[in-house]
Each structure stands twice: as structure tokens, then as C-alpha cells.
Amino acid sequence: MSGEATLPREALTGLLADLASTGAVTLKNGDLFANWARGGDWDVLVRDLPEAESKLVERLGLPDRVSCRSYVRAYFYPWGEIDLLPDWNWRGARLLDRAALFAAAEWKPAGVFPVVGIAHEATIAWFNSILWAGVFNPRYASVVERAVKEDPRRFQHVLQAVFGARWRRRLWRLADGGRPGAAVRDAAGLRRAVLLRALARNPLGTVAAWVQLWSAEITLRRRPVVPWVWADCRNADAMVERIRALAAQAGSGLAGVRLYSWPEGPAPFSLLKALLQYWGPLVKDRANGQLVVFVPGSGSSWSVTAYRWMSSSPDLDLRTEKVSAEQVWRRLRGEMQRRAAALVGAGTGSR
User: Are residues 21 and 163 in the same domain?
Assistant: First the structure.
């Protein structure tokens, strides 16, 4: 959350009431307002994604950015992020049955929204980042510890439902021994386990979900929701730093601001490196919400032509326009909001 943005508590309270009435449930971080205040997001499992999105926009207005993936729709506001999930899965492999997650919903004392029981919450908090990114957030160690103490039997049952009996025994030893972070070393084996279990339960559905995942990812790379800028090499660094500061101040929903330049070297080799750069980290950064500022080759017309062929014309070309960083930022944010508005209500799934 930015220094200027404040939580719209009244609007959020209305949204919580709307979604609670539909049977939605928080998957982790049940202390919602405190979590937003410390920069966290809200992961909420919903029964009907279009209906939930409609209620969200009705209460909160259009977001600054929307990220549409097969497994989540993320809405970024100046004050924080809301993630609507149709399921809990990893790359098309369903990890827990939707009905079981909805059935596990509980109202905590002084809670503002139902959250899954501690056994399910600990499992999701522990393994979501391990499966997707191979990392463990130490902040969730206390959630795992609570599950061990408060509901050990169900916790083991949930671990077995996700990973199978063999992994359940190892993971329980780690949890009971206060070493949940050590599971990071088993990330590859855990991924194989959930994929094989999902394929055994529902082979066609798992393959279809995997295809849907990559279809959405390809669309994100072909049509990123974050615009991009071309800049002159003489002022690119200063421009990036200023835009970075303005984005942080505004709480724009950007994942960051990155500077790329045309690779150096003889023409054939630099073009090859540019192709690898574009279809590798640059496209991935744009798909993940990074604002990319690109510096074409030093006056080389063929490098500009090559990049236009690979991607598209820039949303803003600062090589031909002399504008301040503040003007750049206002125009980029307006374009980002326009793209978000086009996505909201356009249906679910890949774009």
C-alpha cells in the first residue's frame, strides 16, 4: 500500500458482506485489514468468478491493473490487492477439492470473513509459494505451528490429501519439529507428487487445465496489461528512477519498473540476443506486471524495425516526445487503467 492510499474500509466491508453471502472463503491471512495494511493481498476462493468480480467492481470501482490467469484473477488498487480464485491448484493440478475447502470455512472470533480451518490454512500458506516459486515465507511458520498444536489429526489428513501418504509422513515430521522451511529442498518431489495424484484422479481434466494455463500465459505475453516505453539512452536511467518513485508513491499496482537496452555486438549476434531477451525475461516481466522501459540500439534503424516486428510499437516513445516523468507516469497509468477496464467483465479464463 502506498503512503498516499488509504483503505476504503466502508467499501471493503460491503464487499466482504456481499461475498460472504455467496459462500466465498478466505484461503489464508484471515486478518484481512491488518494484512492489507502491511502490504499483503487477499486470497479468496469464490463459487462464481464473474459474479464475484461484478460485486468487487461495484463496491471498489475499477482497479489500476488486472492480471488474468487461469488459476487467479488479481485486482490491483492503490491500497492493495485482491485475488479471486476459482480453485486451489498448481499448473493445472488440483491440490484440494473445492467442496472440501468451502466446507472447511469457519468464522473466527472477531473475524470479518470466513476463513478455511487452521489445517487447510496452514497447508495452503506452507506450500503455495513452495510449489510455485520454490520458497517458504517464514511468516507462515507460526500458522504451521498452530495447526500442529490445535488440529494435528486433520492437518495430517489434509497433507495426505494433497501429497499422499509417503510425503505426509515426511512433511509431518518437519512441521512437528518446527522446520517447515526445510520442505523447500523437496519442492521438485512435491511438484511431481501433486501432478501425478491429479493425473490419477482426473487425467483429462488435469491436461485440460494445463492447456488452459499456458493459453492464458501466452495471451498475457502477447497482450500484456502493462504498457511499455521506449526511451533515449541519454536520459533513460533518470527517467526510470523517477517513474519508479512516482509508481511507489501512487501505489499503482505495478510489480516494478525495468530498464532494457538493445544488446551490443555485431548485427547478426545482437539481433539473436535481442530475440532471446525479448521472448525471455522482457516478455515475462511485462506479463508479470513490470513496466518496461526499452532503449533501442544507438540510432540504429534496423534494431528499431526488428523490435517493432517482434512485439509492437511502444505505447509511449520518448525518443520523439519531450515530456516530464510526471507526464509520462500520468499517461501510462491512464493506459493501464483503460486496459484494466477492458478486461473487467470480459469473462473468465484466458484472454
Answer: yes
